[in-house]
Amino acid sequence: MSYKEALANFKKKLHGPTVKFLVLPHKNPDGDAMGSCLGLALYLRKFGHEVNIIAPTDFPYFLRWLPNVDQVLVFSEKQNSRVKKKIHEANVLFFVDFNTLSRVEPLDVFLKSSPAFKILIDHHLAPETFDLMFCDPLAPATAVLVFRLIEQMGHLDCIDRDLAMCLYTALVSDTGSFRFSSVTSETHIIAAHLMDKGINAGEVQDRLYAIYTQGRMRLLTKTLQGMKILAEYRTAYMYVTSQDMEDCHYQKGDTEGFVNYGLSLKNVLLAALFIEDCTKGIIKISFRSKTNFDVNTFAREHFQGGGHKNAAGGVSREDLKATLEHFLGFLPLYKDQLS
Ligand code: 5GP
Ligand code: MN
């Protein structure tokens, strides 16, 4: 289905009889996932639809101030029956900022078997197929696609300050405050439109980034002290152990952005961060790269993950030591690209 056809189809849904929308970000939702979901929900509600948002896992504390964030239902065993009921009742499922249903575990099984109409809005590479797709892997954030959708529907006047705040936060989050190479003139034009709705850009930055607890700062310090630089492979990597997290009173979101410090080193093309999660028995990995080194492929091939060319993630079910050994073992395979 072409983008134009998808738009026409969506228009029918939006202007048709009242629908129960269920909007879902990926697990461990970030600023783009949360901001895009909340912005989209505000937009859909303007047409009288019932809109619920369910997050598969909790979100970081530095997003707790977003407009209407209290309305987000976070899945947990305690909320199991409530969440299943919402999924069961929904007529339309809106998947936001992820390309495969495995990214919404443990809800993926219920969502897969739901007969509801499924719409995807996302900027990751190689998305799975759904009933309607608003996808562009070149977009620097899913919020750009939400904005484009609203614009192409002819509804820019629906964007009020709250909606603008949600999308602006999403933009800032996924572009490294407009620093990444994915940023285009369109990104800035959208940011300008959103700012004109009365947003204080500095305030958003402060709410997102000037909120370190002492524990988080100590965790960052410890992580940076342990950074290893492999000049031969233009690679820097760091790890955070469960013990470090406990010692520094870890809260969800505390390691967000740590991986970027590796990439801020001159000459480094690949940065990796390994986070030990003893409760789940996994190591969660973040990869970032500069230029043409494709961490999406690297994460897919070696760590059951994916993402974007310059920002991806993955997972390992081995312990930290074995995971690091494997990672180091893969680097020689990429010597040509990392020199
Ligand atoms: P982060 O490193 O910030 O967790 O994620 C960077 C990017 O990679 C995000 O776009 C995120 O959606 C994607 N990503 C992170 N972890 C995974 C994963 O385990 N699987 C896949 N497919 N994508 C991931
Ligand atoms: Mn995103």
Description:
This protein is α/β, with parallel strands linked by helices and 339 residues long. It folds into 2 domains: 3-208, inorganic pyrophosphatase (n-terminal core); 215-338, Diaminopimelate Epimerase, Chain A, domain 1 (Roll). Helices cover 39% and strands 19% of the residues. It has 13 helices and 12 strands. The strands form 2 sheets. A 6-stranded parallel sheet has the order 3-2-1-4-5-6, sandwiched between helices. Helix 2 packs parallel to helix 5 (142-152) and helix 2 (31-45) runs antiparallel to helix 6 (161-174). The N and C termini lie far apart (41 Å).
Give structural attributes.
single chain, 339 residues, alpha/beta, inorganic pyrophosphatase (n-terminal core), Diaminopimelate Epimerase, Chain A, domain 1, 2 domains, 6-stranded parallel sheet, 6-stranded mixed sheet, 12 strands, binds guanosine-5'-monophosphate, binds manganese (II) ion
Q: Under CATH, the topology of the largest domain is which?
A: inorganic pyrophosphatase (n-terminal core)
Query: Can you tell me the number of structural domains?
Result: 2
Mean pLDDT equals 97
Q: Which ions and ligands are bound to the chains?
A: guanosine-5'-monophosphate, manganese (II) ion
Gyration radius, rounded: 20 Å
**CATH homology-level superfamily of the largest domain:** inorganic pyrophosphatase (n-terminal core)
* Number of DSSP helical runs: 13
Strand content: 15-25%
Summarize the amount of helix as a percent range. Answer: 25-40%
Report, as a whole number of angstroms, the end-to-end distance: 41 Å
CATH top-level class of the largest domain:
Alpha Beta
Classification by helices and strands: alpha/beta
What is the string of helix and strand elements?
A: HEHEEHEHEEHHHHHEEHHEEHEEH
Which consecutive residue ranges, at least 5 long each, have pLDDT under 50? none
Strand order of the largest sheet: 3-2-1-4-5-6
Annotated CATH architecture of the largest domain:
Alpha-Beta Complex
